[in-house]
Amino acid sequence: MSRISLLEELRRREVLKTAGLYAGGAWLLTQILLAVLDRSPLEETTRALAGCILVSAFIGGFPIAVLLAWFFDLTRTGVARERPTARGHLALSLAAMIVVVIGTGTVLWKFSPCTFGKVLGIAVLPCSYYGEQGFEQQGPGVARELNYRLSHLTELRVPAWSSTVAVSAGTANPAKLVEILGVERLVECSVRRAQERLTINLQLYDPRDDRNLWSKDYEGQTADELLLIADVFRGLIGADAIKVGTHARGRVERVNRPPTASAEAWSTYQLACNSEDAGAYELALDSYRKATLLDSRFARAHAGAARMHWQATLRDALPAGMGRARLHAAWTHAQLALRAEPDLADALALRRVLLAVGAEDTAPGKDPPSRLTTDPDELHERVLALRPSFAEEYLWWSQWLARQGRQSEADEALTEARKLDPAGTLEHRYEFKERPTG
Question: Does pLDDT of 182 surpass 90?
């Protein structure tokens, strides 16, 4: 039977009408239910599973509705079996079922929020900077910030920024980069600054096929750098080649909030990050503290200051009194970070580390923020739930487990840390002599 007769038969049995009504109704109902889920008090993993089941159920119901329309007709007297009027109706039925099943499977794979266990590896390469002198830190700053925000998404595996910088400095070959970093996608970017205008160009590249998958320019005022970065981040994760599911909206909105309302505090924070990356830890500490003075609720700056104080107790042979003072300062900054942002993974990880070395004993009367546990395992799970690609947490957790004699777990954590830090930059950074306790 010809292709034309198949189309006529589909129309006669009102299959096309049924398909249109089902698709439109299911899409509308799905959007409403997903919006309700996003605003529900459920845990993110529960919302993700519910969204996955919901969308998959509606898509999976599509071929059922179409096949029912093919075989049955809704009449005034009830549901009746369709009587075929054309020769070769069996072949038509089989062809229709095959088309519907293949089409539905394709849609389910492409648009369902379920990731089917697939985690996409993606690395943000350092941005090239062009423009006015004195603002060169904006190049690495933009790339580092995108890397930081991407590391919070469960669908992605993002190498540690320090590892990406080290590997990209050693080779310019994209194929070699993805091999060493263990990723499938590279983000290349450039930052241009001229007359108070800032332009960020982003490209998503697949070295395996040697092709650009997505690119876009973003332009705005230099004073609105954080708002511009938020737009860039939304555009990047909205690209088809990344496929961040709709269930991740709540997480995306949380991590994409401006960390500070002060442009000066943000600029100072970027200087601190650059100093830390360069190994100038005391200079980094000074800049982190300045950022907190410019904005006392800048949680990430407080976390940076806490990290620098804690590192000093491991790195330097400090007198006992000075070591306690450093731990006191680290604990205070970590507490301030968590009061400003209770779900900041960096500060939660530091809280666990500092509890392990008795830092809270150096600050009597400083009660922890509400709802925060002191159990190391619970804190670790919460940190990774908030920021799955957090190489430092895996490394710190491995070190703590080894001290507790939980060697097999320590080895597993170290393996995960090395996957996210293939260049070993963090192991080198935190390869300090442990401060004696007690």
Answer: yes
